[in-house]
């Protein structure tokens, strides 16, 4: 299954072929960008306790692919309004960027996963490390603009988007699924969705409970769309 954000993504000026939620394809992409092979994407085959026990640890990020339904859009607006009213705490070292390229949500999710775990991932010198170094002092919108202009990452996305098990869609073809990332930072679970106004603080978590806590939020997405079945959960973990 391939993911993309809404066709009307604000300020998006370019459309890419969406990346498939295929661990083999995503791991090729990560390794091309300098992520060592001891870290990689795996499928989360089920969301119950027994299935989660099979996911390799440590888990650095959880990525959810879900349908961009009306229920998602309504909740997104309600959530933003509530946060703007009540406020939330976001740690200064959370790396978050806006998505300004249509159909790049899979790559944005992977960049969010790596950028918030550079203390554990020995990222090699290359295009992604250079991007993160340049993006670190910028705000979320400026990071998104820098990403849009980063030919190395964009070209790697284009190359790997041609691979996978599903038919490759046209870049202009609407794809109504979207990738988001969950990361653990300073004892807090954050949702990073490049189409939202800001990161979402989902409360306390720990390294040990991060996967289970992220899955609880994934289940909330599913509960808002009980008639949808096209949800996929993957994770960035230590490789066996």
UniProtKB/TrEMBL annotation:
Annotated catalytic residues: 105, 178
Positions of the record's site feature: Important for enzyme activity: 193
UCH catalytic domain boundaries: 15-238
Record EC number: 3.4.19.12
Catalytic activity: Thiol-dependent hydrolysis of ester, thioester, amide, peptide and isopeptide bonds formed by the C-terminal Gly of ubiquitin (a 76-residue protein attached to proteins as an intracellular targeting signal)
One Gene Ontology term of the molecular function aspect: cysteine-type deubiquitinase activity
Highest taxon, organism lineage: Eukaryota
Coiled-coil region: none
InterPro entries for this protein: Papain-like_cys_pep_sf (IPR038765), Peptidase_C12_UCH (IPR001578), Peptidase_C12_UCH_sf (IPR036959), UCH_AS (IPR057254)
Residues the UniProt record annotates as site (Transition state stabilizer): 99
Keywords, sorted A to Z: Hydrolase, Protease, Thiol protease, Ubl conjugation pathway
One of the protein's GO biological processes: ubiquitin-dependent protein catabolic process
Pfam assignment, any one: Peptidase_C12
SUPFAM superfamilies listed in its UniProt record: Cysteine proteinases
GO CC aspect terms: cytoplasm
Job of this protein: Ubiquitin-protein hydrolase is involved both in the processing of ubiquitin precursors and of ubiquitinated proteins. This enzyme is a thiol protease that recognizes and hydrolyzes a peptide bond at the C-terminal glycine of ubiquitin.
Family classification: Belongs to the peptidase C12 family.
Name of the protein in its database record: Ubiquitin carboxyl-terminal hydrolase
Source species of the chain: Arctia plantaginis
